[in-house]
Fold this protein.
Amino acid sequence: MKSKVAIITFSIFLITSFFLGCKKENDNTNSGAPSPPSPSSSGIIPLKAGNKWVLRETDYNTGGGIDTTFNLILQVVADTMISNERWFKIIINGDNSNPAYWTNRSDGFYELIDTVLPNKLFKYPASLNESYLSFSDTIKVTSVSSVITVPKGTFTTYEYHSGDILSSYDWYISPGIGFIKSNNFRSNVLEGKLELIDYILL
């Protein structure tokens, strides 16, 4: 069974309908906070065959206890030309039957819907409080310097938020590294999260 977070967070999103805010971990946007991550020439999520991210997904039950925990492995396995543009094929946990296609453009990170329609998931570079339309959802940049600690370590990230009081999502993305964390909430209660536990960038 596909997890709620995975479906939202990976072409899905919205990455399927992708992706959160309600509760921020360390939103250091005041004076004295860390500087925003340096711009990455490889895009906010570096795409190259062989790149891999291992994320731990935790889903919670209605009482707040942990329901399930397991790992998701996202891997860039190839690149291909689609409509004269270079896209990268992504598989999850080695399953090649339903790949996602991602690319970085000058204005951000895109997924390809039904191998036809490009959809911007993460605007990059982006300014604090900037909003934009992603497919049918509005996403807001709620921080450009959130300091987030996950099992893999501590990272300075952009934070993206989408949703309302009934259902909302937060994504924490570190330029040049990629996915660090995502949270999804239902009625302001944490329903699931993804956290980076390892990565390989070539």
Notes: The first strand starts at residue 52 and ends at 60.
